[in-house]
Amino acid sequence: MTRPGAVGPGLRHGRASLALSFGVQGVAFALLVTRIPALQDQYGISDGLLPVFLAAVPILAGAGSVLTEKVVARVRPGVVLRWAQPLVLLSLLGVGAGRQLWHIAVALGVFGLAVGALDASMNMMGVSLQRAYGRSIMLGFHAAYSLGGIAGASLAWVGARWDLSLFVSYLPVVAVLLPAALVGSRWYTEGRSPGGGVADPSKAAGGGLSFKLLLPLCLVMCFAYIGDSTVSNWSAKYLQDVLGSSEQMSTLPYNVYMVTTLLGRAVGDLGVRRFGAVAVVRGGSLLAAGGFAVVAGAPGAWVGMLGFTMLGLGLCVIVPQTFAAAGRLFPGNSDAAVARLNIFNYVGFLVGSPLVGVLGDAWSYRGAMLVPMVLVLATLVYARSFAPSPARYGGGHERPRTADVG
After folding, report:
1. Rounded-to-integer distance, Cα 91 and Cα 111, Å
2. Burial of 103 (0-12, 13-18, 19+ CB in 10 A)
3. Can you spell out the DSSP letters for 266-321?
4. Entry's Gene3D superfamilies (predicted)?
5. pLDDT tens profile 363-388
6. Side-chain-facing half-sphere of 203: CA atoms under 13 Å
């Protein structure tokens, strides 16, 4: 494996360009999801029909991830990413430009498929670059995504504050980000095999992909996104309706969650290098579970805010480390492993919001917060899957000779 000290300018440029792609994607996704009320008004989408449109995006993204697994058997992930990112931005612009239901249906369909290909290819390249660096860098890429999400949400707030149409809000952002992404794509690169060549997953030793071995990581990914979608979809309602906050204060939990996610990911790689991936994932799981417990038992809004802060710091490390662990588990077929694992990102997103809603209506919203808490705690059962010596190397006791701990 390439030692950290041997990292050349090509890999450094590739790392920077990939971080830019993560950031651009964070902006684009935030611009879409934070302007949903404006989408309803522009297209006349009823409350009953809205969930159909919202569910279609992650379902099609899952299909895009499956398709990407097939495509990267013939072309490199960087090629997929180079074409998928412009499609995401252009389809976002299409969402803002339309007026009829079929317009948004087509635009969201393209957006969903492109997002699936984008997420899969970005994380494939991140895993490959981390292997080349020989140390944890995946959290840094996801920190760039969080930073982009904060920027996108801020831009959406400006658009809403000045009552700008979606097209007017999206056009200058796309006009800046699209050429930036295309220029940055010139430096896309991937990690190299110990012999100096780009690893070919179709020819590498140990290239078989066992879903049985991958399943624990798939479950962890699903549980993490159930927790994430709970915060995204229910934090404002919970703070206002259950904890009695003002309408203004109810907008704060998600913002705080995003900021703490960024901070946790910005320093998370250092934690992985110092303590190892297993310890960081265990610590993040315990902190996130504690956050859900605090939210469920909070006597007032400010204590609830503390719980959502804990959630951001805890959940933020799990997803990047899950992708990294899949790359270590299947070093000869990491692209396919990442593509399949990425599907459970969307499964968790689809399950999380209705799960809390159903439980909240049938039982109580305080009680509903305990369900994602238990699921996040279940990550502890699978923590050994994050070790640098996975089960395929001898049940977790034999350490392969590698500098990679993240």
Report:
1. 5
2. middle
3. HHHHHHHHHH-HHHHHHHHHHHHHHHHHHHHH-SSHHHHHHHHHHHHHHHTTHHHH
4. MFS general substrate transporter like domains (1.20.1250.20)
5. 999 999 999 999 999 999 999 999 98
6. 6
Backbone angles phi, psi at 91, to 5 degrees: -70, -35
Rounded CA separation 233/250 (Å): 12
From CA 314, how far away is CA 288, in angstroms rounded? Answer: 4
Cβ atoms of 220 and 341 within 8 Å: the answer is no
Two tokens at 72?
């990267």
Categorize the per-residue pLDDT at 232 as very low, low, confident or very high, splitting at 50, 70 and 90. Answer: confident
Amino acid at site 64: G
What is the torsion angle, in degrees rounded to the nearest 10, for the CA atoms of residue 358, residue 107, residue 61 and residue 81?
-150
Q: To the nearest whole percent, how much of the chain has pLDDT over 90? A: 71
User: Which conformational region is residue 2 in: left (phi greater than 0), alpha (psi within -120 to 50 degrees), or beta?
Assistant: beta
Distance CA 144, CA 348 (A): 22
pTM over 0.85: yes
The two three-digit tokens of residue 60, written as one number = 């099609």
pLDDT grade, residue 192 (50/70/90)? low
Q: What is the dihedral of CA 141, 146, 152, 155, to 10 degrees?
A: -120
- In the DSSP assignment, the letter for residue 238 is I
Query: Burial, 197: exposed, middle or buried (Cβ in 10 Å; 0-12, 13-18, 19+)?
Result: exposed
Binned at pLDDT 50, 70 and 90, residue 60 comes out as very high
Contact 47, 97 (CB under 8 A): no
Two tokens at 387? 């070790």
Average pLDDT over residues 357-362: 90
Tokens of 132: 């080349």
Task: Report which residue type is found at 233.
Answer: N
pLDDT tens track for 331-355: 889 999 999 999 999 999 999 888 9
